[in-house]
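2024-03-11 09:14:02 DEBUG pipeline.ingest accepted 1 chain
2024-03-11 09:14:02 DEBUG pipeline.ingest length=333
2024-03-11 09:14:03 DEBUG pipeline.predict start
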Amino acid sequence: MNSVKIHKLFLMCAVVAFVTISQLYAQVHSSSAYRYLLSQEGLQRHLEFLTSEEIAGRAAGTPQAKQVADYIAGEFEKYGLQPLKSVSFYQPFTLLPPRGGKATSLSGVSQKGYNVVGYLPAKKKNADYIVVGAHFDHLGKIDGKVYPGADDNASGVAALLELAKSFGKRYMEKGDFNHNIVFVAFDANNLNLQGSRYFASHLVTFPAEIAFMLNLDQIGSSLAPVGKNEEYLLVLGVDKLKKWQQEQLWFANGYFGIGLHLDSSYYGSPEFYDIFYKLSDQQSFTERGIPALLFTSGITKLTNKEGDTVQNLNLEVLQKRIELIYRFLWLVE
């Protein structure tokens, strides 16, 4: 190859590299456009409703759980989301009794559970899907005592709704998504993950066409820190993503000054990592070969206790966690 051809090839590579870097730079900075929609006021509104006396702990199969499903569906519609290949945001399914058939408040008073599913379509047909999920049910009322479940999992639902709001605004203004983004609130997590198992077994597409799933479960507490840093986040399953996708999580945390202590090892315990990773709704997706991440602040002394109230959450840290997930989702979308 002569020197002229080498020079032309070098120039072509330089142009391609410049265009790629420019596009990446624009993508990084465009993510700030809708960050303002992630507000503590919005979080507070969702959390107060989900943990209120009238909602009575959101046990699957109860009228209160249906009230929550209606609330989420109303928010989805307000944010510009669409039903996912359906006429409704609801995905009803038949509830099965708890294992062993023991009667508890989790048995419910209805035979129906309700996932709530909304999505934002990609700009091109035949695009892959990204699923963002959080379960909304909790323990309900047991022996006359209400279990409000602020961290477990009103925090995840509040985060889901704030993310849906920001990405919904982007869709209505730009409609420029590379993936179809699905937001789903699962029912009956506390009944052997029935809601997410039903969703994952009734997909509108092939599992191979789902790029990955993000699960938000108990992300509002700072009571189980990694070391002494209360501004932390546990991320399980990140190794299941592509290498470049993994790197975006740490990049977003540093570049945007979020500064959370990210732990992808579950406190350095491989044994508990394996156990904990299988306990929430991401498991319903990994069973079908779909890469799935769990974002969580971990099990605390208040998990499944009456004291799991909004007052015991750390809303400032929760907002930082939501921003990280928002930035990460933007970059990998």
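2024-03-11 09:14:41 DEBUG pipeline.report The mean pLDDT is 91.
2024-03-11 09:14:41 DEBUG pipeline.predict end
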